[in-house]
Amino acid sequence: MKQKIKENGLSLAFLVMFLLTLAGQAIAGTGQFNDQQLVNGGEPVPVFTYVTSSDFAVDVAENWQSEYLQFFLFITMTIWLVQKGSPESKDPKEAGLESDEKQLVGRHARPDSPAWARAGGLRLQLYSNSLGLVMGIVFVLSWLAQSVAGVATYNSQRLLDLRDPVSWGAYFTSPEFWNRSLQNWQSELLAVLSMVALSIYLRQRGSPESKPVGAPHSWTGVEG
Q1: pLDDT tens digits, one per residue of 85-112
Q2: Can you tell me the distance from the alpha carbon of 121 to that of 110, in angstroms, rounded to the nearest whole number?
């Protein structure tokens, strides 16, 4: 058991932190929501009622969609685009899909390679792009969930302001929806830009996201 925990420590640590922060968001969000309820002459609600509401759903989905957009773009763009000196980039000479031999697919697969890596046709194509596909699908679904929960929250506020509710289509094209989306997208893109650029010149000893401390700035795609 200890060996299993050690071998999966990174995933487990982030899973625990994710659950703790999600619980913290639920508690803090309930407090904020109840403050607004009192201002509007409503009654406070328990945590369970809040976490099953559109208010909580839109905030969670809003964060998830921007994160998965970041992963999707970074995974797919680094196939072809490079950044000299960054450990987050491939060597400029290796830009592209790379050879079957280097990717260990088809007749170049190892005995312990995944079964679909040894297959051909559609199965190999799907598996070869499965990470990007899953990240893209989760992004689209999260963005859709944000829009659905968002229109419910938006209309609740409009009713409090004695205004008519709007359709999903009207909300999707509204400044409210795009402000929510774009403010998250720009922060995620800035974070990726910072990681790619700063890792050219700065180091973190022992981290696979950094080059070795003594590596020249010009080394690309080298992790230490």
Answers
A1: 998 998 888 888 888 888 888 888 899 9
A2: 18
